[in-house]
Specification:
The chain is an all-alpha fold and 443 residues long. It contains 18 helices and no strands.
Length: 443
């Protein structure tokens, strides 16, 4: 059974998938790392404005490209159509091996950090493994049941984050200095700002989630743009407000001195609600991460399905169970996530996956120029306003981040390139296997 013609997801579910894919680990952990390189609160808030503009520009590009080629699979499908099957395969290879599994692992690790404050002590990684296994089961029980689970968890997550923001704005001002200080242009133009954007970019990971389920979405030429653009705008506003609250209630010196950088939201919660209230909010944040992990499992498994449909050696991944769920792909993505939980450090994995992910989103966004050139030969599609403004913004910011990763985090960049090299070898092996299988059938 193929998922490609199963149009069961409405615009609300697609939008919810975009929102819940973004609101996860990053927004609750990024500030702890950013204050080490930026000292100006204005610079710290500007990061989220730039990050939102970056994601919004990318959303416009993906909305046009995705509506022109409406099939589940994300960059794997789009890059195969835009450039060459090798380019698409590498995007799929990276997505299946790390780009989705790593955020699943990072979200599970963050869940353990926050849930660990209120739950009984267990061995390291136990709670992270449990939440991955639970969401894998939920998404193995069928597309409709999985999407309903995501809808409810998304609504819960939005209520929780709005609650935190409102509470943070209502308490007395905790800082002696103004929350928003004068902007330091040396901060903005320096390498520290570009590297800090990596964490913001990770926080916005998932802004393109709707294209991964395009083949399962009703009326994709209308609903994909609504989901991508609407989801990004809403999340940008929430991110900016939440980080303003963090900076409003929490002294910068205490954030800088945090040993566990991922716990910055818990520290802010302590200042908002006190010790007991801080524990409650930590539990709320942990609960919100359920939907993030579920969204990553849902979208990542669809890429594995698309690869299984196109390449004979991976046919196993395209099979669905009696409930119509690609359970084998769900298990694969979840298993890699579990492996990373027990073998990787949070910070190094984050920068590594952002490097390889941004490389492919850069290529996909650039593909909008190819779509415009083909014009009427393509499907009825969405056309972005103010073309080519949004592609130029997205490509410039993405290119700037990639260059600074290579300059300032060369080990992670080399690891990303190594992943692409291994994927190239696997691609040519797969092509050879396909040819051999076809020859056997002819003979």
């Amino acid at each position: 059974m193929s998922l490609g013609n199963s149009h069961v997801l409405n615009w609300g579910t697609a939008t919810g998938l975009v929102i819940t894919s973004m609101i996860g680990t990053g927004v609750y952990t990024s500030l702890g790392y950013q204050v080490g390189t930026l000292s100006s609160t204005s610079s710290l808030l500007l990061l989220w404005i730039v990050g939102g503009l970056h994601a919004l520009s990318g959303a416009f590009c993906y909305a046009e490209v995705g509506s022109a080629f409406p099939r589940s699979g994300g960059e794997y499908h789009l890059l195969s159509r835009l450039y060459h099957p090798l380019m698409g395969f590498l995007a799929g290879w990276v997505s299946v091996t790390v780009s989705f599994a790593a955020p699943i692992a990072l979200s599970a690790i963050a869940f353990e950090v926050y849930a660990g404050t209120i739950l009984p002590k267990l061995s390291q990684g136990a709670y992270a493994a449990m939440i991955i296994a639970l969401m894998a089961v939920a998404h193995s029980l069928g597309i409709k049941s999985g999407s309903k689970t995501q809808d409810w968890l998304t609504a819960l997550k939005l209520l929780l984050i709005v609650f935190i923001i409102l509470c943070g704005l209502c308490i007395p001002h905790a800082q002696t200095e103004p929350v928003i200080d004068s902007l330091d242009m040396k901060d903005v133009l320096g390498g520290g700002f570009a590297v800090s954007l990596i964490y913001v970019s990770y926080s916005f990971t998932g802004w393109n989630a709707a294209v991964y389920v395009a083949g399962e979405t009703k009326n994709p030429s209308r609903n994909l743009p609504l989901a991508l653009i609407g989801g990004v705008i809403l999340v940008t506003i929430l991110y900016l407000c939440l980080n303003y609250v963090f900076l409003r209630v929490t002294p910068l010196d205490e954030i800088k001195s945090l040993e566990n950088k991922e716990g910055v939201a818990a520290l802010s919660a302590y200042y908002i609600y006190g010790e007991r209230g801080g524990l409650i909010i930590s539990g709320i944040i942990a609960a919100g991460l359920f939907s993030t992990i579920g969204a990553m499992i849902m979208t990542g498994s669809r890429i594995a399905v698309a690869i299984g449909e196109d390449y004979k050696p991976f046919t196993y991944l395209a099979k669905t169970n009696r409930w119509g769920s690609p359970a084998r792909s769900v298990v694969l993505i979840s298993s890699v996530g579990l492996f990373l939980v027990f073998t990787s450090s949070f910070n190094s994995v984050l920068i590594y996956i952002e490097f390889v992910a941004l490389f492919f989103t850069f290529a996909t966004a650039a593909g909008v120029f190819i779509v415009r050139k083909k014009g009427a030969a393509l499907n009825e599609r969405f056309k972005m306003p103010l073309f080519p403004l949004f592609p130029i913004i997205y490509l410039l910011i993405t290119g700037w981040i990639l260059v600074h990763i290579i300059m300032e985090r060369p080990i992670q960049a080399l690891a990303g390139l190594g992943t692409l090299l291994v994927g190239t070898v696997v691609y040519f092996y797969s092509k050879t296997s396909n040819i051999n299988n076809m020859s056997k059938k002819v003979n």
